[in-house]
Amino acid sequence: MKCPVCGCQEFFVKDPDDAFETHGFSVASGAVRFEADAAEAPAHGIHEATETYCNKCSWHGKLGELKKT
Ligand SMILES: [Zn+2]
Questions:
Q1: Percent of the chain scoring above 90 in pLDDT
Q2: CA torsion 10→21→60→55, rounded to 10°?
Q3: Quick one: pLDDT band at residue 15, thresholds 50, 70, 90?
Q4: How remote is the CA of residue 22 from the centroid of ligand 1, in Å?
Q5: Strand 51-54 and strand 60-62: pairing?
Q6: 45 CA to middle of ligand 1, Å?
Q7: Can you give the pLDDT at residue 12?
Q8: How far is the CA of 34 from the centre of ligand 1 (A)?
Q9: 49 C-alpha vs ligand 1 centroid, how far in Å?
Q10: Is residue 23 packed enough to be buried (19+ CB in 10 Å), middle (13-18) or exposed (0-12)?
Q11: Average pLDDT value for residue range 36-56
Q12: Contacts within 8 Å (CB) and 24+ apart, 62-67
């Protein structure tokens, strides 16, 4: 799993309950791993349709799309 544009493996999602809150995670291990610890993960979790943003470039899309790359 990596960004289809820049190849970066670090992304973030916006908190569904607070658009100003973001949760960063890495997919370097092949699975979604939130920064620091699990407490960093959004309360309601993320799923295939969660809008995901690349940390390094302007790519964004559904988490499910990312898994296919
Ligand atoms: Zn990118």
A1: 49
A2: -30
A3: confident
A4: 17
A5: antiparallel
A6: 22
A7: 93
A8: 17
A9: 18
A10: middle
A11: 81
A12: 63/13, 63/32, 65/4, 66/1, 66/3, 66/4, 66/11, 66/27, 67/1
Task: Please say if the pLDDT value at position 38 is more than 60.
Answer: no
**Per-residue CA distances from 17 to 6, 14, 20 (Å):** 29, 9, 9
pLDDT at 5 over 90: yes
Tokens standing for 8? 């970066």
Which of 20, 18, 7 minimizes the C-alpha distance to 55?
A: 7
Q: How far is CA 38 from CA 15, 65, 66, 69, in A?
A: 14, 23, 21, 25
Count of other CB atoms within 10 angstroms of residue 2: 15
Q: What is the pTM of this model?
A: 0.84
Q: Position of tokens 């979790």?
A: 45
